[in-house]
Design goal:
The chain contains ten helices and ten strands. The chain is an alpha/beta fold.
Length: 272
Amino acid sequence: MGVAVESRDQALVESPIVFDVAGLNVHYGDFHAVKDVGIQIRRNEITALIGPSGCGKSTVLRCFNRMNDLIETARVSGSIRYHDVDLYGSDVDPVQVRRHIGMVFQKPNPFPKSIYDNVAFGPKIAGFDGDLDELVEQALTQAALWDEVKDKLNDSAYALSGGQQQRLCIARAIATSPDVVLMDEPASALDPIATLRIEDLMQGLKENYSIVIVTHNMQQAARVSDRTAFFTVDMEETGQRTGVLVEFDETSTIFTNPGEKRTEDYITGRFG
């Protein structure tokens, strides 16, 4: 069974490169988690990372904002250039990196604060000295949540539904005006209606941000992304399972005319 892809009248315009990845390898101690990944993420596009469990999708995603630095045994090698700057250069501050590259996690994780304070937290930490009320409203509006919460900004974020909490987390991520938003299966814990809200939201957000999304849902990747990277698992001589990138192309090509049999087998449900 195939996956429906929205038709596109012409090939994507080659927009500027945000991330240029070459020879990316990630180890956790002796475990080789991801091997020799090369990929380019372009401005104002949604790039989907798909593949079976354990293929390294989330590991690669966390490399883009140096979240793997927080894991003591993690070791990242190869090259990730962000706007042609070495993201892992000795003079690059990981905290500053995460201000430019926001992250939304699989399960909604609002802070135990009010709706307002959740959105205002990041800008306050970053020393924002403008109109905070205006900034909060703008972020919540961009996250398609303002109309639902504008009269209860002082209520606990925990009072929101799961889908609303996830949109709040997106508002929190964009409140610091990042360049890129990373999303690690942002709708996997949500019902179908809330999932569609998140997908619609992503389409609007890409006008201002570059988005990279990890998803197990191939239909979701086909619906929302401009380009898709398919990862799978190779068995090393040591018996370890290592994530590898099989194919990276425009989403329409990946889902209708893939260049690799492993991609076709996964897309059609014969593998994975």
